[in-house]
Amino acid sequence: MNPAQPISTSPLRLGVCPAHFKFADVLAPDENGKLPRHPDGQLKVLTELKQFLADSPVPLSVVPIFTFSGTQKEDLRETLAGIQSLGVTPEAILMINGADPMSPDDEDKFVALSMEIIEIAKSLGIEAVCSTTFEQWMDPAPAKTGADYDAAVTQLVKAHHRIYQEADLANSSIKSWHMEFLRPVEFSTFTNVRSAWDVVKGINEKIGTNFFRVLVDASHCGDSGLTIEDNQNVIREIAAAGALGAFHASVKTTRGCLTTDEGWIDSLLTTCLETGKLETVIVEAFDHTDPGLQPLRDAVAGHGVDTTKGRSYNQLIFDGLVQVEKRIN
To answer: Do 232 and 268 form a contact (C-beta atoms < 8 A)?
Structure first.
């Protein structure tokens, strides 16, 4: 397959979020903000992705990639431009460290860190960004309720609206921003599709357009405490409002092989497809040995189970892509 000439049998964009490459030693920067490289100087994430695309049994068109605040700007630019050179569309997943999006005291820092990545994305003509910018990852705190919850929503709307204005996103290459809630333990408050929709709806009302979208990750929906039917009802509401974002086909709890799922991926993907508003489907799994995810394995029973059955993680993802392509076709 020639990855520079992706072919699709569906109007949907199909892609992979390469979390299985491992955050440690491939995806995440070191203490100096430098991304991991091979001895010959090539970025590991690009060499891994080039081989993955060459071997994939399914043509892919989009790759959301993790972009950590504090990473050297040259490395971020090289990563995003390098993905473009492979013939697929990169999307920047904003990973903002050291600033709580819910806190007014952290607003300036949160905006500044986000803007650094967004400006690079704009300069490369990237059309979509993603983020989990509801809370800080693995920052344990009591869930906000009542007036505290309302205040958090208000602050998140304010901070993201400010980025939208200061980055002049309305007049940029970026056409959408997909916001992803996370499971309990990873987050404390914005842990289901309903709470994510509260924020996204508020931002869009503020700016007067559906620029912000709710990213629906089946794994987080499955771990959220809401039933499949609850999730489906909210997804339909979001889609009817024009704010349905990408769908991530990923397995609850284990984040492993898609065949270990308990019906969440198929049910929620079908619902998203039935709305007629879904544009992008992404397959994602985590490597159960990734040192970068040890805190999550320590905190969540069942996370980090080996579901490979002797396969490489690339092959595990390939199997998932074939399965998902059959569904969307």
So the answer is: yes
The pLDDT of residue 276: 96
Beta strands in 154-268 (DSSP E): 176-180, 212-217, 244-249
The pLDDT value recorded for residue 5 is 34
95, 66 Cβ separation under 8 angstroms: yes
Residue 244 phi/psi, 5° resolution?
A: -75, 125
Task: Enumerate the β-bridge partners of residue 178.
Answer: 130, 213
- State pTM to two decimals: 0.95
For 180, list phi and psi in degrees, rounded to 5: -115, 120
Residue with the two structure tokens 């697929």? 88
Length of the chain, in residues: 329
Q: Which residues contact 13 (CB under 8 A, 6 or more apart)?
A: 61, 62, 89, 279, 280, 281
Please list, in sequence order, all residues whose beta carbon lies within 8 angstroms of the beta carbon of residue 221, skipping any fewer than 6 positions away.
192, 193, 228, 231, 252, 264, 268
The DSSP symbol for 132 reads -
Q: What's the pLDDT score for residue 253?
A: 96
261: left (phi over 0), alpha (psi -120 to 50) or beta: beta
Alpha-carbon torsion (135, 140, 144, 148), positive or negative: negative
Q: What is the pLDDT of residues 45-89, one digit of tens each?
A: 999 999 999 999 999 999 999 999 999 999 999 999 999 999 999
Question: Which residue ranges in the chain fall short of pLDDT 50?
Answer: 1-8
Helix, strand, coil proportions of the chain in percent (round to 5)?
45, 15, 40
Q: DSSP letters along 60-114, please?
A: --EEEEEEETTS-HHHHHHHHHHHHHTTSEEEEEEE--S--TT-GGGHHHHHHHH
For 65, the enclosing helix (H) or strand (E) is: strand 62-68
Cα separation, 82 vs 80, in Å, equals 5
Say if CB 53 and CB 65 are below 8 A apart.
Answer: no
Pairing between β-strand 89-95 and β-strand 128-131 as defined by DSSP bridges: parallel
